[in-house]
Amino acid sequence: MPDITHGLPILALVAVLAYLLGSVPFGVLVTRAMGLGDVRAIGSGNIGATNVLRTGNKLAAALTLVLDAAKGAVAVLVARAALGEDAAQVAALAAFLGHIFPIYLRFKGGKGVATFLGILLALSWPVGLASCATWLVAAFVARVSSVAALMAAALSSLWLLPFGQGQLLFLVVILTVLIYIRHAANIRRLKAGTEPRIGRKTGT
Question: CA gyration radius for the chain?
């Protein structure tokens, strides 16, 4: 963990602002803006890029992926520039919580993978790139988005070591645990052999 150099009121304000940014449901906004309907009524009902892809619109999925990652990255970068590393880590956690429990959607949000990767890229770009590469390799091999997500999250803590980012370990472990919790249904389907593959328009 970084040294705590700011008081609770300042860090609480950072957390609230980052949470509100993280809560912006880009999957819902993008699909509506592109005339694709409400993504929550499609496939799994999730607001993330994987479920947006089930609309058959790759551009919408790509925009959702980039924007969900960007909101996590922006929260971290702005907090770091304004206040420092303690605020950056608080912003990272709050933005992630905003995505998976968004106030704008009655706390029913996404699974956090894109936002997680955006956060990692902002906190430490080598760790972020390594985690993105892990996702891509796992997705290419398994052709299942949840497998790629779980692998990227699980290995992210290990990637901290060669890049000398041990101060991020506590935060990254917390985010990884939350990703696994959010993927509980996917894990059950993986065990049952019923998890849909990347690109399918239907499924849960």
Answer: 16
Task: Give the CA dihedral 7, 11, 12, 18, nearest 10 degrees.
Answer: 170
Q: How far apart are CA 160 and CA 170, in angstroms?
A: 11
Q: Which two tokens stand for residue 146?
A: 């949840």
> What is the pLDDT confidence band of residue 200, given thresholds at 50, 70 and 90?
low
User: pTM for this structure?
Assistant: 0.91
Q: pLDDT tens across 51-60, in order?
A: 888 888 899 9
Contact in structure between 44 and 203 (CB atoms under 8 Å):
yes
Tell the burial category of 91 from Cβ atoms under 10 Å away from its Cβ (0-12, 13-18, 19+).
buried
In order of 41, 54, 196, the CA distances from 51 in angstroms are 10, 5, 11
Distance CA 70, CA 6 (A): 25
Three-state SS string across 98-159, please?
HHHCCHHHCCCCCCCHHHHHHHHHHHCHHHHHHHHHHHHHHHHHHCCHHHHHHHHHHHHHHH
Do residues 65 and 121 make contact, with C-beta atoms less than 8 angstroms apart? no
Residue type, 141: V
pLDDT at position 117, please? 97
Instruction: From 195, 42, 196, select the one nearest 52 (Cα to Cα).
Output: 42
Following CA atoms 200, 110, 186, 158 in sequence, which dihedral angle do they give, to the nearest 10 degrees?
110
